Amino acid sequence: MRRARPGAASRGSAERALTSVAAGESYQPGGREESAVTEEGPRLWHVTLSVSGADAPLAEVRRGLEQLAHDHPFLLTSRYAVDHAEIRYWEEARDLHDAAAVALRLWGEHRQTSQLPPWEIVGLEVIDRDTYHQRIAEGYGPLPATPVGVHPF
Questions:
Q1: What is the pTM assigned to this prediction?
Q2: Pair 114, 68: CB distance under 8 Å
Q3: Which pLDDT score, from 0 to 100, does residue 27 have?
């Protein structure tokens, strides 16, 4: 691997150089930079939240997840076992950062009201609607959430 100082042209390409793009900007050939944030409204994001922790009685886990489904209107499906659960739902948010922030707060904010086990978040996937549908069409990725509801693994 050859190292070069910043701004140096790569070997074999005098006109090709790496360009840094600041957050919130997109690269435009010719030096023009415009904001990458559009005036679009909220988008739908498919969220898969995985939680895990010490064993808890299955009946209590199920009851807590059913209460969470009642409290969270976009909940699609939950799968659970004595020591872990997976929650899948659609979130409406401006961008991925907002959808992920809401998802990361979901378990903690509903732990008391839904009487959820004191588990920690161990995984999070947030994908946009188009990516979700593309994965389904290509036969990989999270399967459609059917049947909707709370189910054991």
A1: 0.70
A2: yes
A3: 42
